[in-house]
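Bug report

Summary: structure tokens for Exopolyphosphatase differ between web form and batch submission.
Environment: batch mode, default settings.
Steps: 1) Submit the sequence below via batch. 2) Compare with the web form result.

Sequence submitted:
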Amino acid sequence: MTHSNFSKAITAAQQQLEKIEDKLLKATWQQTLGTSGSIESIITSADNNVDLDDFELTLEHLEKLRAYCEQVGEIDALQLGEVNDQRIQVYPAGLAILTAIFISLGVDKLSFSNSALREGVIYEMDDSLHHDDIREHSIQSLATRYDVDIEQANLVLNTCFNLFKQAKEDWSLNTKRVKDLLGWSALLHEIGLHIHSRGVQKHSAYILQHADLHGFNAEQQTFLSLLTRFHRKKSA
């Protein structure tokens, strides 16, 4: 990850953007939104304590991240907080492409959206979802499908939130995003009972990893799965 390699990658991305650049620049927009894994990883690494709902990414943030990558030099040596190893492998490429977009299209700032193309189609098809969080809808649907004991799940949820409140400062967990994921995993931690009571945590994790959870990206879904997988007993 040298300065020269980054410059070449940004230039290559800009060349691809030339095909649609004129059309986009003629359009007017009030807000720029980004979504899905790479952009979320970039925003998260720009500020480890960021609240995705409030953070606005700028070209200055991207330049600082590029400088960090060039300083480190090797992809495997990058330290990017919550960004997982698989995402880190494509992180520099995503950073170069997003930088090219900011430069070519004159983007001042970008906000994050939890919903991607798939959710956008759903919103257009069903007006009843316009004012709901698609993720809440996904969680409730899964809870209903697997006959979750809601009363028990809420007891676990309240306990989790009490522990979260006590630990969030020391563990640097002051983001709504983390709390939401913790709450959803608490509500669904026993869905594996639908398969078998023995090894319920393993069954719950499997279901959450492979379920079609609208509104959740791959990293968030894996995180939910891991929280349920290791909530009890040994990891083996």
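Above is the batch result. After comparison, the two runs are identical; trailing whitespace caused the diff. The domain at 3-113 is CATH 3.30.420.150 (Nucleotidyltransferase; domain 5). The first helix runs from residue 3 to 26.
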